[in-house]
Amino acid sequence: MDAPKTSPSAEAVVMQALSAIAVIITSSTLALHWKNRNFPAAIMMGWLILLNLFNVINAFIWPTDDVDNWWDGAGLCDIEVKMLISSYVAIPGSLVCIFRSLACVLDTSRATLVQTKRQRWITRSVEVLFCVLVPLLAAATHLIYQGNRYFIFAVSGCVSGLDRSWVSFALGYLWPLVVCVIASYYCGLLLFRLRRYRSQFNEVLRAANSGLSRSRFLRLFFLAFIMLLALTPIQAYMVYVQVKLSMPWHPFSWSLLHGPGSSWRVIERIPTGGAVYFDRWIPVASAYTAFAFFGTGRDASRMYRSFLRPFGLDCCFSPMENKTSGSFPHTSGSAGSRAHLIPGRGKAQ
Predict the structure, then answer these.
(1) In a domain? residue 339
(2) Model pLDDT for residues 15-64, shown as the tens digit of each residue
(3) Where is this region: Disordered (predicted)?
(4) CATH code of the domain in which 89 resides
(5) Domain annotation covers residue 179
(6) Which domain holds residue 122?
(7) What share of the chain is helix, strand, coil (3-state, %, to 5)?
(8) Distance CA 99, CA 122 (A)
(9) pLDDT for 244-281, tens place per residue?
(10) Which residue, among 88, 57, 246, has the nearest Cα to 152 in the 3D structure?
(11) Which residue in 20, 68, 98, 323 has its CB near the most CB atoms, within 10 A?
Protein backbone atom coordinates (compact mmCIF):
# COMPACT_ATOMS: atom_id res chain seq x y z
CA MET A 1 0.00 0.00 0.00
CA ASP A 2 1.36 3.40 -0.98
CA ALA A 3 2.25 5.80 1.80
CA PRO A 4 -0.12 8.78 2.07
CA LYS A 5 1.03 12.04 0.56
CA THR A 6 2.43 14.46 3.11
CA SER A 7 1.82 17.59 1.05
CA PRO A 8 -1.48 18.96 -0.28
CA SER A 9 -2.37 18.40 -3.92
CA ALA A 10 -2.39 21.26 -6.41
CA GLU A 11 -6.19 21.01 -6.63
CA ALA A 12 -6.50 21.37 -2.87
CA VAL A 13 -4.24 24.44 -2.80
CA VAL A 14 -6.13 26.09 -5.66
CA MET A 15 -9.52 25.38 -4.10
CA GLN A 16 -8.43 26.73 -0.72
CA ALA A 17 -6.93 29.89 -2.22
CA LEU A 18 -9.95 30.60 -4.42
CA SER A 19 -12.28 29.98 -1.48
CA ALA A 20 -10.34 32.40 0.73
CA ILE A 21 -10.58 35.11 -1.93
CA ALA A 22 -14.27 34.28 -2.40
CA VAL A 23 -14.93 34.94 1.30
CA ILE A 24 -13.43 38.41 0.96
CA ILE A 25 -15.12 39.48 -2.27
CA THR A 26 -18.52 38.07 -1.30
CA SER A 27 -18.44 40.19 1.87
CA SER A 28 -18.78 43.30 -0.30
CA THR A 29 -21.82 41.93 -2.14
CA LEU A 30 -23.36 40.93 1.20
CA ALA A 31 -22.90 44.48 2.46
CA LEU A 32 -24.49 45.93 -0.68
CA HIS A 33 -27.56 43.71 -0.52
CA TRP A 34 -27.95 44.32 3.20
CA LYS A 35 -27.71 48.06 2.62
CA ASN A 36 -30.40 47.82 -0.07
CA ARG A 37 -32.58 45.73 2.29
CA ASN A 38 -32.57 42.80 -0.12
CA PHE A 39 -32.95 40.11 2.53
CA PRO A 40 -33.00 36.99 0.27
CA ALA A 41 -29.92 38.06 -1.70
CA ALA A 42 -28.10 38.96 1.52
CA ILE A 43 -28.95 35.54 2.98
CA MET A 44 -27.62 33.86 -0.15
CA MET A 45 -24.37 35.82 0.06
CA GLY A 46 -24.07 34.87 3.73
CA TRP A 47 -24.37 31.18 2.84
CA LEU A 48 -21.74 31.51 0.13
CA ILE A 49 -19.36 33.12 2.62
CA LEU A 50 -19.97 30.34 5.13
CA LEU A 51 -19.53 27.52 2.60
CA ASN A 52 -16.31 29.00 1.25
CA LEU A 53 -15.08 29.47 4.81
CA PHE A 54 -15.72 25.76 5.38
CA ASN A 55 -13.63 25.02 2.29
CA VAL A 56 -10.71 26.98 3.72
CA ILE A 57 -10.96 25.46 7.21
CA ASN A 58 -11.43 21.87 6.05
CA ALA A 59 -8.55 21.96 3.59
CA PHE A 60 -6.35 23.32 6.38
CA ILE A 61 -7.35 20.62 8.91
CA TRP A 62 -7.42 17.61 6.55
CA PRO A 63 -5.03 18.54 3.72
CA THR A 64 -3.73 15.04 2.87
CA ASP A 65 -4.67 11.34 2.99
CA ASP A 66 -2.79 10.74 6.24
CA VAL A 67 -5.95 9.39 7.91
CA ASP A 68 -4.10 7.87 10.88
CA ASN A 69 -3.16 11.34 12.12
CA TRP A 70 -6.45 13.07 11.36
CA TRP A 71 -8.47 14.87 13.98
CA ASP A 72 -11.91 13.25 14.26
CA GLY A 73 -13.69 16.58 13.72
CA ALA A 74 -15.89 16.20 16.82
CA GLY A 75 -17.98 19.31 17.32
CA LEU A 76 -16.91 21.07 14.13
CA CYS A 77 -18.27 18.42 11.77
CA ASP A 78 -21.40 17.91 13.86
CA ILE A 79 -22.25 21.56 13.25
CA GLU A 80 -20.90 21.71 9.73
CA VAL A 81 -22.93 18.81 8.32
CA LYS A 82 -26.13 20.38 9.66
CA MET A 83 -25.18 23.70 8.08
CA LEU A 84 -24.47 21.95 4.79
CA ILE A 85 -27.86 20.24 4.88
CA SER A 86 -29.48 23.64 5.50
CA SER A 87 -27.56 25.29 2.67
CA TYR A 88 -28.83 22.76 0.13
CA VAL A 89 -32.33 24.24 0.50
CA ALA A 90 -31.46 27.75 1.73
CA ILE A 91 -29.68 28.85 -1.46
CA PRO A 92 -32.45 27.63 -3.82
CA GLY A 93 -34.91 29.09 -1.30
CA SER A 94 -33.22 32.48 -1.67
CA LEU A 95 -33.67 32.18 -5.43
CA VAL A 96 -37.40 31.53 -4.91
CA CYS A 97 -37.68 34.79 -2.96
CA ILE A 98 -35.58 36.79 -5.43
CA PHE A 99 -37.59 35.66 -8.46
CA ARG A 100 -40.87 36.18 -6.61
CA SER A 101 -39.84 39.67 -5.51
CA LEU A 102 -38.82 40.69 -9.03
CA ALA A 103 -42.00 39.19 -10.47
CA CYS A 104 -44.05 41.22 -7.97
CA VAL A 105 -42.33 44.40 -9.13
CA LEU A 106 -43.71 43.73 -12.62
CA ASP A 107 -47.16 42.79 -11.33
CA THR A 108 -49.25 45.61 -12.78
CA SER A 109 -52.48 44.07 -11.49
CA ARG A 110 -51.70 45.60 -8.08
CA ALA A 111 -51.87 49.07 -9.60
CA THR A 112 -50.47 50.68 -6.46
CA LEU A 113 -47.26 52.53 -5.85
CA VAL A 114 -46.48 50.67 -2.65
CA GLN A 115 -47.36 47.25 -1.32
CA THR A 116 -50.22 47.05 1.12
CA LYS A 117 -49.59 45.91 4.67
CA ARG A 118 -50.98 42.47 3.78
CA GLN A 119 -48.71 42.19 0.71
CA ARG A 120 -45.67 43.17 2.77
CA TRP A 121 -46.62 40.57 5.39
CA ILE A 122 -46.95 37.86 2.73
CA THR A 123 -43.59 38.80 1.22
CA ARG A 124 -41.83 38.67 4.59
CA SER A 125 -43.53 35.40 5.44
CA VAL A 126 -42.34 33.81 2.19
CA GLU A 127 -38.81 35.07 2.80
CA VAL A 128 -38.73 33.74 6.36
CA LEU A 129 -40.22 30.43 5.22
CA PHE A 130 -37.73 29.72 2.43
CA CYS A 131 -34.64 31.44 3.86
CA VAL A 132 -34.97 30.47 7.55
CA LEU A 133 -37.66 27.94 8.49
CA VAL A 134 -37.19 25.41 5.67
CA PRO A 135 -33.37 25.29 6.16
CA LEU A 136 -33.84 24.83 9.92
CA LEU A 137 -36.38 22.07 9.29
CA ALA A 138 -34.00 20.36 6.86
CA ALA A 139 -31.23 20.35 9.47
CA ALA A 140 -33.57 19.06 12.17
CA THR A 141 -35.05 16.23 10.09
CA HIS A 142 -31.55 15.04 9.14
CA LEU A 143 -31.43 13.44 12.58
CA ILE A 144 -34.18 11.05 11.46
CA TYR A 145 -32.32 9.56 8.48
CA GLN A 146 -28.71 10.18 9.56
CA GLY A 147 -26.93 6.93 8.68
CA ASN A 148 -23.74 7.63 10.61
CA ARG A 149 -22.29 10.56 12.50
CA TYR A 150 -20.49 11.91 9.42
CA PHE A 151 -17.78 11.24 6.86
CA ILE A 152 -14.47 13.07 6.67
CA PHE A 153 -13.06 13.39 3.16
CA ALA A 154 -9.47 14.49 2.64
CA VAL A 155 -9.38 18.20 1.64
CA SER A 156 -13.19 18.50 1.41
CA GLY A 157 -13.76 17.71 5.07
CA CYS A 158 -17.14 16.98 6.65
CA VAL A 159 -19.85 15.22 4.64
CA SER A 160 -23.24 14.12 5.97
CA GLY A 161 -24.23 10.46 6.22
CA LEU A 162 -27.58 9.13 4.95
CA ASP A 163 -29.51 5.99 5.75
CA ARG A 164 -30.14 3.75 2.74
CA SER A 165 -33.93 3.91 2.96
CA TRP A 166 -36.86 5.70 1.37
CA VAL A 167 -36.90 8.15 4.29
CA SER A 168 -33.61 9.68 3.13
CA PHE A 169 -35.21 10.27 -0.27
CA ALA A 170 -38.45 11.70 1.14
CA LEU A 171 -36.91 13.96 3.80
CA GLY A 172 -33.43 14.53 2.45
CA TYR A 173 -32.02 14.81 -1.02
CA LEU A 174 -35.35 15.31 -2.83
CA TRP A 175 -36.14 18.71 -1.27
CA PRO A 176 -33.37 20.83 -2.78
CA LEU A 177 -34.67 19.81 -6.21
CA VAL A 178 -38.26 20.58 -5.16
CA VAL A 179 -37.23 24.08 -4.07
CA CYS A 180 -35.39 24.55 -7.39
CA VAL A 181 -38.62 23.63 -9.20
CA ILE A 182 -40.51 26.25 -7.17
CA ALA A 183 -37.83 28.80 -8.07
CA SER A 184 -38.21 27.78 -11.73
CA TYR A 185 -41.93 28.55 -11.55
CA TYR A 186 -41.32 32.10 -10.31
CA CYS A 187 -38.51 32.49 -12.84
CA GLY A 188 -40.94 31.51 -15.60
CA LEU A 189 -43.51 33.98 -14.27
CA LEU A 190 -40.89 36.72 -14.25
CA LEU A 191 -39.79 35.89 -17.81
CA PHE A 192 -43.42 36.04 -18.93
CA ARG A 193 -43.89 39.48 -17.40
CA LEU A 194 -40.58 40.73 -18.78
CA ARG A 195 -41.69 39.72 -22.25
CA ARG A 196 -45.18 41.13 -21.77
CA TYR A 197 -43.99 44.53 -20.56
CA ARG A 198 -40.71 44.74 -22.46
CA SER A 199 -41.79 47.94 -24.20
CA GLN A 200 -43.00 49.46 -20.91
CA PHE A 201 -40.28 48.06 -18.66
CA ASN A 202 -38.93 51.40 -17.47
CA GLU A 203 -42.42 52.76 -16.78
CA VAL A 204 -43.48 49.70 -14.79
CA LEU A 205 -40.24 49.67 -12.82
CA ARG A 206 -40.53 53.37 -12.02
CA ALA A 207 -44.18 53.08 -10.99
CA ALA A 208 -43.41 50.12 -8.72
CA ASN A 209 -41.47 52.46 -6.43
CA SER A 210 -39.22 49.51 -5.50
CA GLY A 211 -35.98 51.49 -5.35
CA LEU A 212 -34.55 49.27 -8.08
CA SER A 213 -32.88 50.82 -11.08
CA ARG A 214 -33.07 49.04 -14.42
CA SER A 215 -29.43 48.00 -14.03
CA ARG A 216 -29.86 46.62 -10.50
CA PHE A 217 -33.05 44.78 -11.45
CA LEU A 218 -31.42 43.09 -14.45
CA ARG A 219 -28.21 42.25 -12.59
CA LEU A 220 -30.18 40.60 -9.80
CA PHE A 221 -32.28 38.72 -12.34
CA PHE A 222 -29.32 37.46 -14.36
CA LEU A 223 -27.41 36.39 -11.24
CA ALA A 224 -30.40 34.41 -9.97
CA PHE A 225 -31.10 33.03 -13.45
CA ILE A 226 -27.53 31.77 -13.93
CA MET A 227 -27.50 30.18 -10.48
CA LEU A 228 -30.85 28.48 -11.12
CA LEU A 229 -29.63 27.16 -14.48
CA ALA A 230 -26.61 25.67 -12.72
CA LEU A 231 -28.24 24.38 -9.53
CA THR A 232 -31.30 22.67 -11.01
CA PRO A 233 -29.46 20.09 -13.15
CA ILE A 234 -26.91 19.58 -10.38
CA GLN A 235 -29.66 18.84 -7.86
CA ALA A 236 -31.40 16.52 -10.34
CA TYR A 237 -28.10 14.70 -10.86
CA MET A 238 -27.57 14.45 -7.10
CA VAL A 239 -31.00 12.87 -6.64
CA TYR A 240 -30.21 10.36 -9.38
CA VAL A 241 -26.81 9.49 -7.90
CA GLN A 242 -28.11 9.21 -4.34
CA VAL A 243 -30.97 6.93 -5.40
CA LYS A 244 -28.62 4.78 -7.47
CA LEU A 245 -26.04 4.44 -4.68
CA SER A 246 -28.61 3.77 -1.96
CA MET A 247 -30.41 0.99 -3.83
CA PRO A 248 -31.74 -1.44 -2.79
CA TRP A 249 -33.55 0.44 -0.04
CA HIS A 250 -34.08 -1.36 3.24
CA PRO A 251 -37.10 -0.82 5.53
CA PHE A 252 -36.64 2.20 7.78
CA SER A 253 -36.22 1.42 11.48
CA TRP A 254 -35.52 4.09 14.08
CA SER A 255 -34.35 1.54 16.65
CA LEU A 256 -31.91 -0.10 14.23
CA LEU A 257 -30.61 3.23 12.98
CA HIS A 258 -30.21 4.96 16.35
CA GLY A 259 -30.22 2.14 18.88
CA PRO A 260 -27.32 0.31 20.58
CA GLY A 261 -24.87 -1.23 18.15
CA SER A 262 -25.93 1.04 15.28
CA SER A 263 -23.52 3.01 13.11
CA TRP A 264 -25.11 6.31 14.11
CA ARG A 265 -22.02 7.42 16.08
CA VAL A 266 -19.48 6.11 13.56
CA ILE A 267 -17.06 8.57 11.92
CA GLU A 268 -15.70 7.34 8.60
CA ARG A 269 -12.45 8.73 7.17
CA ILE A 270 -12.11 8.73 3.37
CA PRO A 271 -8.80 9.37 1.53
CA THR A 272 -9.28 11.05 -1.84
CA GLY A 273 -5.85 11.20 -3.43
CA GLY A 274 -5.93 15.00 -3.22
CA ALA A 275 -9.17 15.33 -5.19
CA VAL A 276 -11.81 17.83 -4.09
CA TYR A 277 -15.42 16.70 -3.64
CA PHE A 278 -17.17 18.25 -6.65
CA ASP A 279 -19.87 20.16 -4.76
CA ARG A 280 -17.19 22.19 -2.95
CA TRP A 281 -16.61 24.10 -6.18
CA ILE A 282 -20.23 25.30 -6.37
CA PRO A 283 -19.96 28.05 -3.70
CA VAL A 284 -16.63 29.12 -5.19
CA ALA A 285 -18.10 29.60 -8.66
CA SER A 286 -21.24 31.21 -7.22
CA ALA A 287 -19.23 33.72 -5.19
CA TYR A 288 -17.22 34.91 -8.18
CA THR A 289 -20.37 35.13 -10.31
CA ALA A 290 -22.08 37.24 -7.64
CA PHE A 291 -19.04 39.51 -7.43
CA ALA A 292 -18.99 39.95 -11.21
CA PHE A 293 -22.57 41.23 -11.11
CA PHE A 294 -22.55 43.28 -7.90
CA GLY A 295 -18.96 43.80 -6.80
CA THR A 296 -17.79 45.86 -9.75
CA GLY A 297 -20.58 48.38 -10.30
CA ARG A 298 -21.20 51.96 -9.24
CA ASP A 299 -22.75 51.05 -5.90
CA ALA A 300 -19.77 48.85 -5.06
CA SER A 301 -17.31 51.53 -6.14
CA ARG A 302 -18.96 54.08 -3.86
CA MET A 303 -18.86 51.61 -0.97
CA TYR A 304 -15.16 50.87 -1.54
CA ARG A 305 -14.37 54.59 -1.63
CA SER A 306 -16.24 55.29 1.59
CA PHE A 307 -14.45 52.39 3.30
CA LEU A 308 -10.99 53.46 2.12
CA ARG A 309 -11.48 57.21 2.62
CA PRO A 310 -10.36 57.22 6.31
CA PHE A 311 -7.09 55.61 5.18
CA GLY A 312 -6.56 58.10 2.37
CA LEU A 313 -6.84 55.34 -0.23
CA ASP A 314 -10.15 56.31 -1.79
CA CYS A 315 -8.27 57.55 -4.85
CA CYS A 316 -7.75 53.89 -5.79
CA PHE A 317 -11.37 53.83 -6.98
CA SER A 318 -12.39 56.56 -9.36
CA PRO A 319 -15.90 57.89 -8.80
CA MET A 320 -18.51 56.30 -11.06
CA GLU A 321 -21.62 58.35 -10.51
CA ASN A 322 -24.92 57.70 -12.20
CA LYS A 323 -26.57 60.48 -14.11
CA THR A 324 -29.48 59.68 -11.84
CA SER A 325 -29.34 58.44 -8.31
CA GLY A 326 -29.03 54.79 -9.31
CA SER A 327 -32.71 54.12 -8.78
CA PHE A 328 -35.84 55.68 -10.14
CA PRO A 329 -37.02 58.71 -8.19
CA HIS A 330 -40.10 58.27 -6.05
CA THR A 331 -43.09 59.57 -7.90
CA SER A 332 -45.86 61.56 -6.33
CA GLY A 333 -48.71 60.10 -8.36
CA SER A 334 -51.86 58.65 -6.90
CA ALA A 335 -52.18 55.06 -5.71
CA GLY A 336 -53.82 54.16 -9.00
CA SER A 337 -51.04 55.60 -11.19
CA ARG A 338 -50.10 52.16 -12.45
CA ALA A 339 -53.59 51.47 -13.75
CA HIS A 340 -52.77 52.71 -17.26
CA LEU A 341 -50.16 49.95 -17.51
CA ILE A 342 -52.77 47.22 -17.15
CA PRO A 343 -54.18 46.04 -20.48
CA GLY A 344 -57.78 47.15 -20.82
CA ARG A 345 -57.81 49.52 -17.85
CA GLY A 346 -56.27 52.59 -19.42
CA LYS A 347 -59.44 53.38 -21.43
CA ALA A 348 -61.83 52.77 -18.59
CA GLN A 349 -61.08 56.01 -16.86
Answers:
(1) no
(2) 999 999 999 999 989 988 898 888 999 999 999 999 999 999 999 999 99
(3) 327-349
(4) 1.20.1070.10
(5) yes
(6) 10-317
(7) 65, 5, 30
(8) 15
(9) 888 889 888 888 888 887 788 899 999 999 899 888 99
(10) 57
(11) 98
